[in-house]
Amino acid sequence: MGRCLIALRDLEAGERLFGEDDFLDETERRAFVTLSVSELQALAPERRTAFVCYGYNTAPDEITGAFDLAQVRHPTNFLNHSCAPNAGYDGDGAIVALRTIATGEELRMDYGTFSFSFDHEFTCGCGAAACRGKVTATDWPALVRAGLRLPGFMREQVRALR
User: What was the pLDDT predicted at 48?
Assistant: First the structure.
């Protein structure tokens, strides 16, 4: 897709960047639908690929995404992946700066913190010193143990790890 987000000003650690459910407008909101894992798996491969392009879990067994990718326009959808992210969840419903982010720096999240029940697997080439080499839906327990937070709906699963 070739899109990314660049900080236009310095951002402080902990600063709220996005809400969990931000959309540019009502047209974009309507373009996103929520499917169960079985509904997602039942899609034809090309529709499933389109859907997970901007897909994310909104419950442990629900995936929200869009079939009409032209309608996806809110900046939060264009955060790229990094195994050493500078943005992430606050453990509730917001995406925050995990550290100070300088003007001109790309904002990046670890995709393992928002895909838990669907195949969003890909080979990673982020270049981080601790790059995992592969991102999968089963990365989240190790990410939690490393200190990253997950969306609020994953609280029970996170508690069960401890």
Answer: 93
